[in-house]
Specification:
45% of the residues lie in helices and 20% in strands. With 275 residues, the protein is of the alpha+beta class. It folds into two domains: 3-130, GAF domain (Beta-Lactamase); 147-274, Beta Polymerase, domain 2, CATH 3.30.460. Strand 3 and strand 4 form a beta hairpin.
């Protein structure tokens, strides 16, 4: 194999290593938010052709993250950070010291940057969601003024019901192609315990992309709520706390799968919200 064939393989190997290191950093729960972002400033250049002259700037809301020796140049590429269908910032990759005569970036590097931006966007989403879940859960107080998720009693289904309603209220139905969200299972039956799931039945008419985005949205809630539940009760739900059941228009017409529960008078799903 000659050098011309070897170099592209070396570049792909660098990109894969960069992605791996980024994913490991984003999954490390011991780091604070700012520590994660600052580590990305160091990791990201390793995936580009010329890492020694590569500098990163990450902007999130009104905050900009960059290393102390950061400087801009006219050679840069960027990718937006998108959370809940809103642009919350961007990542910029600069080459700083070589006077290139033409655009020095490879098409594969833009794809890599887009992938990194997507991963960071999901991290920001989960981070903010975890904070929201904690805030909402801390506000869940029964009539006696006792916080939910004690060891015994009916606090478990009440907390799960409240969280299910909040999820339904905060979900963008048009963006995800959702028609209605229902509650089924032990939470709906008011007998959920500390190890119970939250069973959501969702009627949708969406594209594959919309469905995948919705599943990611629910996964964020699921793992955040699961972590909160574990901290309060000691029960760990490995696959998250939300059990998602999808029904399509076709299944509604044929009345098969979980769709029969929507109009079943003997075991009817509880409507949380409808478009």
């Amino acid at each position: 194999m000659d050098f011309g064939q070897l170099k592209p393989l070396q570049e792909r190997a660098k990109e894969l290593k960069c992605i791996y290191d980024i994913e490991e950093t984003l999954r490390n729960t011991e780091f604070s938010f700012s520590e994660v972002i600052n580590k990305l400033l160091i990791i990201i250049p390793n995936g580009w052709q010329f890492p020694t002259i590569c500098m990163i700037q990450i902007a999130i809301d009104d905050e900009k993250y960059e290393l102390s020796d950061f400087k801009e140049s006219r050679w840069f590429q960027s990718a937006e950070l998108v959370v809940d269908n809103n642009i919350v910032g961007e990542i910029k990759v600069y080459y700083t010291s070589i006077p290139f005569e033409s655009d020095p970036f490879l098409p594969e590097e833009q794809k890599l940057l887009n992938s990194i931006a997507h991963s960071l966007s999901m991290f920001i989403f989960y981070y903010r969601l975890a904070g929201t879940v904690k805030l909402l859960s801390d506000e869940s107080i029964d009539e006696a003024g006792v916080k939910y998720l004690k060891s015994f009693g009916d606090e478990h289904w009440k907390w799960r019901f409240r969280m299910a309603q909040i999820i339904a209220d905060k979900t963008d139905f048009e963006y995800y192609g959702i028609i209605a969200i229902y509650l089924i299972g032990s939470t709906k039956e008011t007998n959920a315990g500390p190890a119970s799931d939250i069973d959501l039945l969702v009627h949708l008419n969406s594209s594959e992309h919309q469905l995948e985005m919705f599943k990611s949205w629910i996964a964020g809630w699921s793992y955040s709520l699961s972590e909160f539940n574990q901290n309060k009760t000691g029960y760990k739900l490995e696959n998250g706390i939300i059990d998602l059941h999808i029904v399509t228009n076709k299944e509604m017409m044929e009345q098969n799968s979980f769709s029969v529960m929507i109009k079943n008078p003997f075991n009817q799903a509880r409507l949380l919200r409808k478009l």
